[in-house]
């Protein structure tokens, strides 16, 4: 299913849950499952900075922990308060590659309501996956 206006309201709700005492940069993620459920994600920072988890991975980890499996996801919407819509970091792109279909839409938004559509494969071309271990 393609982008719907309520995805933006939902992802902005998720963003408010961010725990960002260090960067003050709130990121939200709204992960839709193919069976019609959704998971929120927010970035959760840590005084030991590398222990921070991004919003995208938060939503995916929540879904997998609830029993969802690779291939169960329909889309992810991400939001930031920035001049340009959010762009998932390299680590999140790798985790998206692991858990989501290559053609799954990734909707990147910002506080102005701008939206850029991409896909997992577009964000991580020639990405490494379990197939490469065979
Ligand atoms: N962040 C995300 O949540 N997602 C990304 O893809 C990029 C970065 C977070 C991590 C950190 O809490 C803050 O944004 C600044 O890097």
UniProtKB/TrEMBL annotation:
<feature type="binding site">
    <location>
        <begin position="43"/>
        <end position="49"/>
    </location>
    <ligand>
        <name>substrate</name>
    </ligand>
</feature>
<dbReference type="InterPro" id="IPR050202">
    <property type="entry name" value="Cyt/Deoxycyt_deaminase"/>
</dbReference>
<dbReference type="GO" id="GO:0004126">
    <property type="term" value="F:cytidine deaminase activity"/>
</dbReference>
<comment type="similarity">
    <text>Belongs to the cytidine and deoxycytidylate deaminase family.</text>
</comment>
<keyword id="KW-0378">Hydrolase</keyword>
<feature type="binding site">
    <location>
        <position position="92"/>
    </location>
    <ligand>
        <name>Zn(2+)</name>
    </ligand>
</feature>
<feature type="binding site">
    <location>
        <position position="54"/>
    </location>
    <ligand>
        <name>Zn(2+)</name>
    </ligand>
</feature>
<dbReference type="GO" id="GO:0008270">
    <property type="term" value="F:zinc ion binding"/>
</dbReference>
<protein>
    <recommendedName>
        <fullName>Cytidine deaminase</fullName>
        <ecNumber>3.5.4.5</ecNumber>
    </recommendedName>
</protein>
<feature type="domain" description="CMP/dCMP-type deaminase">
    <location>
        <begin position="2"/>
        <end position="131"/>
    </location>
</feature>
<comment type="function">
    <text>This enzyme scavenges exogenous and endogenous cytidine and 2'-deoxycytidine for UMP synthesis.</text>
</comment>
<dbReference type="GO" id="GO:0005829">
    <property type="term" value="C:cytosol"/>
</dbReference>
<dbReference type="InterPro" id="IPR016193">
    <property type="entry name" value="Cytidine_deaminase-like"/>
</dbReference>
<keyword id="KW-0479">Metal-binding</keyword>
<feature type="binding site">
    <location>
        <position position="89"/>
    </location>
    <ligand>
        <name>Zn(2+)</name>
    </ligand>
</feature>
<dbReference type="InterPro" id="IPR002125">
    <property type="entry name" value="CMP_dCMP_dom"/>
</dbReference>
<dbReference type="InterPro" id="IPR006262">
    <property type="entry name" value="Cyt_deam_tetra"/>
</dbReference>
<keyword id="KW-0862">Zinc</keyword>
<feature type="active site" description="Proton donor">
    <location>
        <position position="56"/>
    </location>
</feature>
<dbReference type="GO" id="GO:0055086">
    <property type="term" value="P:nucleobase-containing small molecule metabolic process"/>
</dbReference>
<dbReference type="Pfam" id="PF00383">
    <property type="entry name" value="dCMP_cyt_deam_1"/>
</dbReference>
<dbReference type="GO" id="GO:0072527">
    <property type="term" value="P:pyrimidine-containing compound metabolic process"/>
</dbReference>
